[in-house]
Design a protein that fits this description.
Elements lengths: L3 E3 L6 E3 L8 H33 L2 E6 L5 E6 L2 H34 L1
Antiparallel strand pairs: 1-2, 3-4
Length: 112
């Protein structure tokens, strides 16, 4: 005879399999939140990383004068920052979309 335990989230009685103390319904509802939080963490990290990469990898701007001497000054690399932000937004969109699909599938499953 299998032992019944309560789900730690909702209190529903489930069979003790020794692996998890959460019922399958609670696991299903938790999955979209993982994807949404991952997308948020990646978005914030990518935003900060883009600014850091733009400041660290500066481009050199050369200016000439009439006597052909070169003056160089370092300029913030906005192109690298924008590229980092673009890739970050694509990755976040993918994670958020997967989480949204899981959320909608959970609604369909709950209606059955």
């Amino acid at each position: 005879m299998t032992e019944k335990i309560e789900c730690t989230k909702c209190g529903k009685k489930i069979e003790n399999n020794g692996v998890s103390s959460i019922c399958s319904d609670c696991k299903r509802k938790r999955t979209p939140k993982v994807y949404f939080s991952l997308a948020t963490i990646i978005l914030l990290t990518g935003f900060v990383l883009g600014i850091i990469l733009g400041a660290v990898n500066k481009t050199v701007k050369l200016t000439t004068t009439e006597d052909y001497s070169y003056d160089s000054e370092e300029v913030f690399n906005a192109g690298l920052m924008a590229t980092t932000w673009a890739y970050t937004s694509v990755i976040c969109t993918i994670f958020y979309s997967v989480g949204s699909i899981c959320y909608r599938l959970n609604i369909l499953i709950d209606k059955k």
